[in-house]
Request: fold
Amino acid sequence: MNLFKKQGVLILDFGSQYTQLIARRVREQHVYSEILQPNVKVSDIVERNPSAIILSGGPSSVFGKSAPEFDISILDLGIPILGICYGLQLLVHHSGGKVESTGKGEYGFAKLNIQSYDSLFNAVSERTQVWMSHMDHVTHVPEHWSVLAESENGIIASLCHDKNKWYATQFHPEVIHTIEGEQILQNFLFNVSECSPTWTSGNFIKEQVEQIQKQVGDGQVLVGVSGGVDSSVVAALLHKAIGEQSSAVLIDHGLLRKNEANLCVHALKDGLGVKIQSFNESNVFLPKLNGISDPEKKRKIIGEQFIRSFESISDKLGDFSFLAQGTLYPDVIESGVSHGKTAHVIKSHHNVGGLPDDIDFELVEPLRELFKDEVRNVGRELGLPDSLIDRHPFPGPGLAVRIIGKITEERIQILQNADQIYMEILHDEGIYHEIWQAFAVLIPIKTVGVMGDQRTYENLCGIRAVTSHDGMTADWYRMPEHVMARISSEIVNSVRGINRVVYDITSKPPGTIEWE
Reply:
């Protein structure tokens, strides 16, 4: 493990819905973070040589039978520790304090009464707002611990161990609702733990180039490119690492946006000199999707056919032992295969949970530990054009998961036309870059309309736009009324087959960003 990782932070995941946010917030400070299971061996922690450990929140009670296993000898390593919510209760419980439930919890916003501004609350405002989400709380402070802050309700909100550099918060500093959470985390990372801010795009590229060269050796790598920023960054990274040993292939499965294949190929070939070819495989993909409505089946069919198409193409192009693809950290998390944990599958991603078991390639996934904005930073460092870097995320299965229900060539064309109008208007109105992701959805419902004094009975089109930092959570974008009116008018008037447009105002959670 490289030095800039060894000086990072290990996060033990006790099942909090915010664990990924903790990792993200640490990385925003240019400090490497890695999530591990709570039953991790002490030897594994020592090997990583972290500057600090963070104990996440979680749904369990420290005195409950279902509490996750935890090796308390971790507390003897002499490493600074921050316990968040359940993590606070865990530290107090194992230090001889008392944690109880009164049947009343604290949920939502709270103001702090800070008693000590040293260390954790240095430069934090008086009565700062934080986000609470807990049922149990500390009723007896253990020996050698001091209270740093209480909530307005008189509940202990933060403590520290006087000697061990153990700090704990009952609130969640990682969520944006904690107004000065970033300052609190900075205080722990740099003032308490003396972390080094070495997790940068340049260091990541250097490390991955070395890892790719070590994994691949003198082998040939086929790089799967979809047109999105993730796979484009992978292609550029492989080109930098092994040059002519990598061959990028864009498979047009017939479900891309209008003119997308040509735009991506020219950007990578002309802009960076990447060796790339495009293959139209729509006549293979679309028949396999005929009559399929279930989104999970669509993803798995597309995931398997991608592999089969890559295998077939590789036989024509040369002897390829490796397949590189743009798998990201959120893909791994949502597919339920993160860190050896059997998580609930939110949706299978075509390049993770949707892959077949029998693959002729060894996978190369250099972005597997990154969030989307980190990928964009790596892309900028590699010299990718803004037209690729700043594109909204686009799913590997493409329009297959934006056409609700059955897929036909007619429905693909309808959605491609509507989506193109939508994107062009967002650019024209100057708001495209305010939005994390925007897209149109074709809904298998027909509604009555009137056009030219005649009755119509055509498709319903949904439009979606969200804001986000990392794709793990998202809020719906407050689209200006005049823009919504323009989008609706131009789609209905220009796209034959659509006579009504609706706007999705669901956040994530409870919804996902994509509809399928």
Notes: The chain is about 35% helix and 20% strand. The domain at 201-389 is CATH 3.40.50.620 (Rossmann fold). Residues 267 and 385 are 7 Å apart (CA to CA). The mean pLDDT is 87.
